[in-house]
Amino acid sequence: MATEIQATSIDYRAVLREIKKRKRLFLKVLSITFVLSILYILCIPRYYSTDTKMAPELESSIGGGTLGSIASSFGFDLSEMETSDAITPMLYPDLMEDNGFVTGLFPIKVKTQDGSINTTYHDYLKKYQKEPWWTKMIYSVLSLLPKKEEGGKSNQGEYDPYILSKSEDDIAGAIRNNVKLSTDKKTGVITITVKAQDKLVCKTVADSVRGHLQRFISAYRTNKARNDLEYYKKLMAEAKHDYQKARQLYGSYSDANSDLILESYRAKKEDLENEMQLKFNAYSALNTQMQAAKAKVQERTPVFTLIKGAAMPNKPAGPKRMFFVLEMLILAFIGTSLYVMKDILR
Hints:
Layout: H1 12-21, H2 23-43, E1 48-56, H3 65-73, H4 78-81, H5 99-103, E2 109-111, E3 118-120, H6 121-127, H7 133-143, H8 166-178, E4 179-183, E5 190-196, H9 199-221, H10 223-256, H11 263-300, E6 304-308, H12 321-340, H13 342-345
Antiparallel strand pairs: 1-5, 1-6, 2-3, 4-5
Helix pairs in contact: 2-12, 10-11
């Protein structure tokens, strides 16, 4: 059974002739598209963007040497895999998924460049964001509907990050959209990118997020060492109390029986002295362990190297108005051309 394959060829000259015939249609469509695109993009608020980079100190065991060099040539950093930390820099971007980390950014103090707004980042996103007119209309209609808020602030004005109201969850979502964390797999450098509708707010938030992340990493890295320090402080306080009690008992007994020479009194005095010495030895040993725990906290506290500070942007990062209008014109031209060629392609 023979199968005939018919190839359809396009006569480009005929297409061009058809486009020339419909040039008024093209002019009308492109003109309307141009005007509507400008009206639309002018309503979209402009935003600024900045970034900052830092490199945290890592603990690694066998990431260096020949093996590390070979792995680096293939694009892998063994120091990332051999670190003793459960949360490595590769996982830091995932912190933005945690409500506890994100809501920790709510109290950041921000101020606009002109000084007209001086508030928290939470209230800045909630009350002072520029919106397109149609979005304002939608919010106005929704504001007329009955609301039922659950979760959110407690009686003390604090947030339970895992029981957020709808409005607070929306603000957390806005922060996730505005703040991005990324990590270079080869170098471990952490990049924090922030966008905002004001230049100074953009820079302030970038610096604050970097500080928030540094505090989180430091708290995580030193958590066990700090717990050990508190434990040794408690034991040392108890040992000190026992030693002081034994010393007072020994001193009182010695003062009360200083003139007696009976062996029973001497034996009792020696027992109290030995007991006091044992308490002192225990107190001294725990004090040494507490000092070592303090040193351990300092040792575990990571050092952060600031590679790039957040600079206040001078030009808006978006939206790209000229590119948007050009893209709309190209799409309108292509769509109109397909409409014109429908008869030719049949």
